[in-house]
Structures are given as structure tokens and as C-alpha cells.
Specification:
With about 200 residues, this protein is mostly helical. The chain is built from 7 helices and no strands.
Length: about 200
């Protein structure tokens, strides 16, 4: 029961952290104020960082759930990134936003690897996808590619949709032939595969 309560507590921290991030992000997108970060935003970022760090610590020490590890680290890192954008870096959030997705992919892969101590196909594919999308959108956001993103979508949209469909078909067959690389529902729990074996030996 105590473990369930701790898991619920971590989920609550993650939800409040996400709400804080959305509030801060909305403020940034709808204002052009690049001066000193206002007090309210600073408080929100501090709380988001603390919620994320607490969830991260609980996931490592208590719950051992990969989702908690991922979301806790994500909230903490996003808070740091946002603070840097507003106070240190020369670019604004409207240019920097794809980097948040890039870090989400990196942290998702790290969380899955830390949880299972090996590369899991179920974590690798979405991680690579998020990193790839973050890099791709960064090219347009930071004006590395001068062409309008809308023009690129109109010209390459059909080809992208076709490649995406082929990728999903290939992914489906890979998952059918390599079950060990897929994260099953019963794997997302309190213990990793190695920990479960230890518990069975003790019992």
C-alpha cells in the first residue's frame, strides 16, 4: 500500500509540474517581453524543477518506474532550459522550442536504458523519433533552412506520409519477430527484469 501511495504522489507531482510548464510556456509564446524574468514565472519554474527533481528521486529510490524517471528528469531539465532561454541565451522560446522535444527523446532513451540496463526497442524508436523531429524543426526555427516550413510541407508532405506508412509497416513486422525488444505492459512496473529475478530467489 505504501508503494502505491508513493506512486500516486509521484503522479501528482508530475501532473502539477506539467501544468506549471504549460503555464510558463503559454506566457512566453503570448508575450514579447525578453527583459528580466518576472517573479511569477520564476516561482513557477522553481516549483516545476522541485517537482521534477522530487519525482526523479522517488523513481530512483522508491518506485523504480521508468515513466516516473522520465517525467521527473524531463520536468527538471525543461525548467533549466527555459530559465536559460529567458536569462542567458540570445534566442527566444519561439526559436528554441524544438530543443525541448530533442531533450525529451534523449531523456526517454536514458530512462529506458537505466530501467532495464539494456536498449529496449520500445524506448529506442520513440526516442529517435523525438530527437529527429527536434533536429528537423530546429533547422526552420533557427533559420538554418531559409525556406518556409509551410512550403516544405506542401512539397514533401506526400513523400513524408508514404515513408511514415512504410516505416510503421516495417516496425510492425520487427515487433512481431523480436518480442524481446518491445516494452510490454507487464514490464512497466515497480521492478526491472533483473530485480524480479532477485525477488523470486529470495522468496
Amino acid at each position: 500500500m505504501k508503494e502505491v501511495q508513493k506512486s500516486v504522489l509521484v503522479n501528482i507531482l508530475i501532473v502539477f509540474g506539467l501544468l506549471l510548464f504549460l503555464a510558463v510556456g503559454s506566457f512566453a509564446f503570448w508575450t514579447n517581453d525578453k527583459e528580466v524574468l518576472n517573479v511569477l514565472t520564476l516561482i513557477f519554474l522553481s516549483l516545476q524543477f522541485l517537482f521534477g527533481l522530487t519525482a526523479l528521486i522517488f523513481s530512483v529510490k522508491r518506485t523504480h518506474i521508468a515513466t516516473h524517471l522520465f517525467m521527473g528528469s524531463l520536468l527538471a531539465v525543461w525548467a533549466i532550459l527555459y530559465f536559460l532561454v529567458e536569462n542567458v541565451l540570445t534566442c527566444g522560446i519561439k526559436e528554441f522550442w524544438p530543443v525541448f522535444g530533442l531533450f525529451a527523446g534523449l531523456l526517454l532513451f536514458t530512462s529506458g536504458f537505466y530501467k532495464y540496463r539494456k536498449i529496449k526497442f520500445g524506448y529506442l524508436i520513440p526516442s529517435v523519433t523525438l530527437v529527429g523531429m527536434g533536429v528537423w524543426y530546429s533547422f526552420f526555427s533557427f533559420r538554418v533552412i531559409k525556406t518556409s516550413f509551410i512550403v516544405v510541407v506542401k512539397r514533401l508532405g506526400p513523400a513524408f506520409a508514404l515513408l511514415l506508412g512504410l516505416f510503421l509497416i516495417v516496425l510492425f513486422f520487427i515487433q512481431k519477430r523480436n518480442k524481446k525488444f518491445v516494452v510490454k505492459d507487464d514490464e512497466i512496473g515497480t521492478f526491472s527484469d533483473e530485480d524480479e529475478e532477485i525477488v523470486k530467489d529470495v522468496e
